[in-house]
Design a protein that fits this description.
Shape: globular
Distance between the termini: 8 Å
CATH architecture: 2-Layer Sandwich
Low-confidence stretches: none
Organism: Paraburkholderia unamae
Structural class: alpha+beta
Protein name: ABM domain-containing protein
Helix content: 40-55%
Largest sheet: 4 strands, antiparallel
CATH topology: Alpha-Beta Plaits
Number of strands: 4
Strand content: 25-35%
Number of domains: 1
Strand order of the largest sheet: 2-3-1-4
CATH class: Alpha Beta
């Protein structure tokens, strides 16, 4: 399994809106993105993380270039972000 972790700096006042974006695009992500296995929202005091599970790193990279991510998800989150997202891909050992 490969994980795509996107860490977002979002003010507490905007976290409900960010969670709404997560809920809006979770089902389309799982239904339409090749290799998609899971998607979880992790909320901490200092940031919000979205953890995506994929069959391979190539699938994760493809998602980052997809219209669903670049136009829909990024477009919806952009007004809520305080800083550029931190994007990392991990492979489970």
């Amino acid at each position: 399994m490969v994980y795509l972790q996107i860490t977002l700096k979002i003010a507490a006042a905007n976290r409900a809106a960010a969670a709404g974006v997560y809920r809006q695009y979770k089902a389309p992500f799982l239904a339409t993105i090749a290799g998609a296995k899971s998607k979880e929202l992790l909320v901490r005091d200092e940031d919000v993380q979205v953890l995506h599970g994929f069959e391979s790193a190539a699938h994760a990279q493809s998602y980052l270039a997809s219209a669903l991510f670049t136009a829909d998800v990024v477009g919806a989150l952009k007004p809520l972000l305080e800083d550029a997202p931190n994007v990392r891909i991990y492979e489970a050992a």
